[in-house]
Amino acid sequence: MIELAGILLVAQGGGGLINRLAGSANPGWFVQLHVLPTSLHIASSVVLLLAGTAVLFLERARKGRRDRSR
Fold this sequence. Notes:
mainly alpha; 3 helices; about 0% strand
């Protein structure tokens, strides 16, 4: 379940970042582009992308430690 949250954060952050960098006027389905002011779009997308990546790496490391201990 934690992996799903990480994947969703990466999708929201990465997609929102691409959306803003491409100059799209439509916010699409990216939540941060709907709820935050325009000046925070790129920063919030980067934060979501990094947070999702961190969640995925930490979960993978946790599972790796658990598997090695068996």
